[in-house]
## 1
Amino acid sequence: MNLGNLFAGPDMASRLMPEWILVLGIIAMLVVPNVGNATFRLPIPGKSWRIPYFIGGKRFALTGDPRLPKAIAAFTLFASFITALLSQMIDSGVGVAETCIAIAEGSVEVGDNWCGKDATMLKVDAFSRLMEMMFTAALLLALLANWDRLPATPVNRIPTKRQRDEGVESRRLHRLLNNRRQVDFSLLILMVALGMSTVALSTNLFMLFVGLELASMASYVLISFNKETDIGPEAGVKYFIVGSVASAVGLYGLSMLYIWNGDLSISSLSSAWAAGPNGMAIIGLAMMLVAFGFKVSAVPFHFAAPDAYAGASAPVAGVLSTASKGMGFVALMRVLIGVTLIDDGSEWTILIGAVAAVTMTWGNIAALGSHNPKRMLAYSSVAHAGYMLAGIAAIGALGPGEGSELIATALIFHLVVLVAFKLGAFLVISLLECDNNRGSKLEDYYGLARRDPLLAISMMIFMLALAGVPPLSGFLSKLMMVSGIISSTVGDVAGSNLSEAIGSLSWVFWLAILIFINSAISLFYYLRICVVMFFEETERMAVPRAAMIRITIMLCTMGAVVFGLGPLADVLAAAANDAALALFG
């Protein structure tokens, strides 16, 4: 294959530059920390000539610094985010840069003339770039927050000999262990980013599945990364087992679609589906939805999610509830909208609507009885999956059109702003976990407003945004979705009596009403956190400083506010609309 075509042209930033930055970051993560003064002795008798090859030996001061891996990972994610942003701004307007990567006759071809063809494997457009920016932003915030959760200590500050005092020796060993795990954690984060970026760009179900599994396998390790804890390894194993079964079912469904159509490109599958699917195609699609249902934590595939969220460190749990969930919804939209959406409605809409109703209701009811904030947010994440599944069901029922585009815009907008308030809530928990792993009980939040007013205000903003209280970004995303469903399904009821008007309503209308009801239910457990922070008494006063976590919390707080009202909300809504148009494209 002519890989040189991937680097052709002056507008590389609008093609695969963000992905190549991630690949180069992974390579740098593998190579740079191992650079040292290693030499190779030439096998010449009587001579001791040595040639340096630098991989191995005693590492240099810079490459041996345990803080270097996270710096490489943070720079890689930031550079990937910026180039993805620039790729949609260097042309005549935001969201118009579009190009496709295809494999035709054994060579890699790049250009917008390949878009829509069956040979296309990856597509760079407003939708894929916005989703990719969301993924990298969430991972970058989690990486920065983990700077304090998994600190790197310079080698010269760690005693080389065993200490007599057991407490001092335990802290020494813990610092050494943290230093050894720096590369592992940073490399896993970059692997997740590369997998998610592949999912965002994929227009071929095989490529989509490869990216999905690349990100998932790294996520399983991140969940159980803190193996010295009691619940971390158990949570990782549970999530891995359930996820592996779901992936196996999805892969089997993928093979059935290939047998049916002979091609896994979305354009080819869409044409074949419009001509009429057979039983094998429908069963294959249903099996793929099992895999995607697990990724988005939809009922009944959600049972491992609360344990995984509770067992993982809070920044990793935040990634699972935002970026990982967004990856699952990207896959769902690629398949359900890109393949099966037809003008007179799709067959799967009633099933997706039923799953959405059960998911949002079950998630909120389960969260009501949870007194562990991490598990409560896990069930809240299940409920939010139900809200977004309702939007997808509405799109399937309406078919292509302005109403569907408005709902898709709301879905994409919600996925992006979810990074601000959902990840922000987990980062507040992460800050409290720095104090001897507190934060897993409701009592740990008692009196937080007096202990740290700024932190309590941030947590309150996150809770209100999750509940959909105006004027925060969570309210705007739900309003866009519900208004899109209602305006598209009510129809013309002028001159009709009440019974006739109700009878003329589409069943999707009642999903919008159910979103309202469940949002009202969720207010109870969100406000419960606010009440204990501001009105309960506590003797504990100190809150860990953890500067990097606090910076990320403040960034998330600003995002939850500015994306709900004002010019930045308009900019993001316009970008989400461009992404929705590209998705229907």
## 2
Amino acid sequence: MATETLIWLIPLPPVLAFFLIVLFTNKNKALSHSVAIGAAFLSWLGSMIVFVRAIGVEHLGKQPFASSINWLPTGDTWLKIGVLIDPLSAAVLFFVAWTVLMIFIYSVGYHNYGQPAGDHDQAGLPPHGATAHGHTVPSIEPMYSRFFAFIGLFAFGMYTLVVSDNLLTLFVGWEIMGLCSYLLIGFWYGKPSARNAAVKAFMTTRIGDVFMLLGISFLYYATGTLTYREIFTEETLHVLSSVPSGVFGLSAAGLIAVLLFIGTIGKSAQFPLHVWLPDAMEGPTPVSAMIHAATMVSAGVYAVIRMFPLLSAGWHEGAALTPAMTFVAFIGAFTAIFAATIAVAQNDIKRVLAYSTISQLGFMIAAIGMGAYVAAVFHLITHAFFKALLFLGSGSVIHGMEHGVLHTGNHKVDPQDMFNMGGLRKKMPVTFWTFLIGGFALSGFPLVTAGFWSKDEILADAFTNGHLTIFITLAIAAFMTAFYTMRQITLTFLGEARTKEAEHAQENKWTMTAPLVVLSVFAIGYGWVGIPEHFPLLGGLVPNWFHEFVGGTLAELPPVLAFNWIPLLTSLVVALGGLSLGWFVYKDIKSPAEDKFQIPLLKNKYYFDEAYEYLFIKPLTWFSEVFVSKWMDKGVIDSILHIFGPAAAGIGSTIRNYFDVPVVNQFFGDGSADVTYWIGKNLRPIQTGRIQQYLILSIVVLSVVGGLVYFFLLAA
């Protein structure tokens, strides 16, 4: 099969699985998850074939796999849509395919989609057949199948976004994922907190999407196209970078890039639209892994990386950053350290990882802002592997703790609170070792983890190119990352069990642990494809394939950084120092009361939710309820409508008194009534339907005769 044809087919299996499950298999659990996993496998297989063919092309950046079709007419031209596999999309397709498939398989083991027999009330639903909020609670089979249908649609959105050759279909995939995040975060709709989190995620990301749509519209207005290969030509970029936009001193290219980047701020939960992602933990754990690793937030970073030629238009290596790049770098660096400080004070095992994701995405955004294109892509991919591993590992821990909760019968114990755990390394060895690998990769443990190589490259780029403020900020954030990661590992797995529930925790079935093992291989091994050529001892041991391959996406290959000891030593110090300090501080802590980092300001996330409630939500609620509803709707609009009734009555009374009675009645008199009676009497046969029958019969006869005449004329 031609590669271009295969690329078109990659997104189709998950969306077909969605429709099959919704329409036909929703009453059968085994059949539903078999359809979903089969679809994920087919997309994985197609992705691997395309990836292998892509790396076999010598100059894929100049000769990508591409195919397009005419879609919408635009006057004398057509708006085209198509598929594109260049080095960037090939690399991203690789990690998306692997993480999606592993999450689908894991989801079969993580089976509490509703309220399965034996599970505690995690779903917030009463027993099957009872009612919740006036609605009958569905049985487990439809809920289970519903979950696999939704994650299938989620995967379709991400695949569509990655293989698209234009911003329009990228935005379609983008919005499909927005819908799926709403459906899956609020999957356990019996819980008010889940419903609220779903609405919060949907509304917050919509803010960014509005600006992104403005950027897409402006780009189409300025260039007449949304296709990457037409936008990123040297001539188009030169024109866009030369034309001032009149907004904050930005060029047209800069303004478009910033508008598109605001969409990423929403989708990838960067400051100040970061507030939705921690609450997204209300969904089932596989959903968290999908959002944080395989799809949603990765899509935001991918989008801004894809737009890098626009963002950096008019900039060259070694020159001062453009205003747009400075803005992006600031948001990324600030978010990285801001979210890391909050993660230190969280006790929920999944919320720690949620703020970790926000922080790590900040690393990628900062790298893009300072022009470290390849480093940003490298960290995006390594992060996807180890963060998927960590989220699935946290789900395994929660599942094991739930077994302990069932054993003791004490449902008041929160199975997600790390202070209720401890000693789980003995009870859950596979989960422990794989989680340790993922945690060390997140911390940047030297040499043996992928996170070290990708994070070190970002720090090296910042230092080598003179962005010292970014370098220091990210180094502090990296130290805090290692610290809270070791805090999480120590409280969860090390020491002795702090509760009876932790004593009775147990390892999970292979469908949950096997994906952890596979992802842990990538959390270690993927970093070796990007070892710097000049790295002491290891440089040149494995060719720096990643830099050459992904860098080939751009018109000019980014220069290879000269080796420098300062960023390397910084990476070693912050990783090993943070891990050591985290273990030393928390190895003997038994309760939250002993934790000196339980600072209210950090624990309550700098009160951003409360501030947004006070500054935005309450004023908008007042505006809609009081100004719009009470004053405008009831006061103005209803008042105008209420005028029509008395006015119409008055006009009718005037006509009756001054025209109908004195004129019409006097002029026509009783004679008009006799004439009207005679006309009605003679029209009565029409009411019987006899004339209607005659007309119908006449039409039928004429039609038959006309048809025969036409037939004989043709025969002649």
## 3
Amino acid sequence: MNRKNLFLPLICLVLLACCTRTEPIVILYENDVHCAIDGYARIAGQRDIERQQTPYVSIVSSGDFAQGNTAGSLTQGEAIVRIMNAVGYDYITVGNHEFDYSVPQMQHLSQQLTAQTLCCNFSRFTNEENHQSEIDLFPAYAVRKYGSTKVGFVGVATPSTFRSSTPTYFIDDEGNLLYDFHQTDTYERVQQAVDAARGEGAQIIIVLSHLGDDPEVAESRGLIAATHGIDIVLDGHAHHLLNERLVNDRGDSVTLASTATKFAYIGRLTIDAQNNLKNELLPVSECHAVNQAVWDTTLAVKQELDAQVNRPVGTTAFALIDRDNSDNRLVRTRETNLGDLMADIARYSTGANIGVCNGGGLRAGIYRETITFGDVVSIWPFNNTMRVTECTGQQLLDALEVGVALLPKENGDFLHVSGLRYTVDPRIPSSVIWNENRMFAGVGNTRRIVRAEVFVPDNGEADRLPYEQKGRWMPVNPDASYTIGGQSYIIACSGASGTFAHMRLLPLQGEPLNDVAAVCNYIEAMGGQINPIYRQSQGRIVIK
């Protein structure tokens, strides 16, 4: 036998041993940070600790990082991207709130990120030689090699983005869809991405999911049940704290994990040398390591915004609440004093008969005496303008019906009102009709709104602050005409499930008024202090 041939098996064994991974892979992850920027230095600090034990460390995000407070809204997400780049993220998927500043801005943020954006179910319609086709805006997956192990990452966004962000961003002036979130085949597209990553040799599949628990479109548990080949789903959107095992469509066990929101936790996924997975949720309060470079970037962002954010605009002697003492969100299910105030601002700033604001648009309350500009931005962080629409009484009643369709469950379409009061009986089945995108299409034979009255000011009272007006209450007349004022999101951009899109949008009178400026103007009109009438909610909405 040739002596050289004797050494070939030994050489192969040595090379194989050299290529075999012995150190663990660590994937640190988060979801729904919503501009809680102090946590970024902590996740980077945890990465620094992990790198002392293994060279194989990555940081990923399941979306909703660009919106949540002034750091996002005043910079349209760019300050957040700046900090995330300092951290050094590897992969992200997009949450619905990455679209809040428009699709072009979302694409701009993705281009600015050093991390790779992955999303298997967001496409743009194109017409090429009169043949309609779709172009995927992001790669569906990526495969990374850690030593001898290939790991596949797949991204997926919630199809509810179409209605939970700004619907008009995704349609043209004629109402035709410009973009597709693949509501009817989301799970199939994830499976295709998983199969493709496996085909490239991925031994572990991690899904970066922003699906949450909305079963009417696509949700994380449904994704696991309908697919195979996934090892773990890192989920966002629902703000849950999750670390559980579920069964896929072949009976195999899959981990579903989520870190709640605003950096309450950091996720730590460890893949050992035998490709076994261990998932942990680390309380950020116990993650004491801080990466100094990321913290310096965070401080620089804060300092740049401080002068604007901390400018006082008024005072209040009581809290303006969006939630109860147990931190349960209230504004999507019932009237609050904050909702009354903001609806009054909508009516006062537009001069409409009725003012409205949707509970989903109220993102914070005020719980301290001095009200700053930053506090106001935190309540209404989406940079809307104030608009007016004209409708019939029947259309008004339909809009109210949509707002209460999900009671007692939360509903971002729930309407706080001014110049209007109504009673709802949630024991009556909702008959609201939805189209395939879960946008308003009509109301059936049953109605939950059992009483609705509009306020008619006395002559000469209409130009006063709403709480100063004298007048009378009259039943809403289905055939009468009314004007409604509110933020452009619901009045002009098909928010609130597109209910207001069926009304007649009135042209702007002069320069558009920003919603935050409208709040500041109203506080100034009150003499710089929130009037005591807002200490309690006004009884405008009665739930039987």
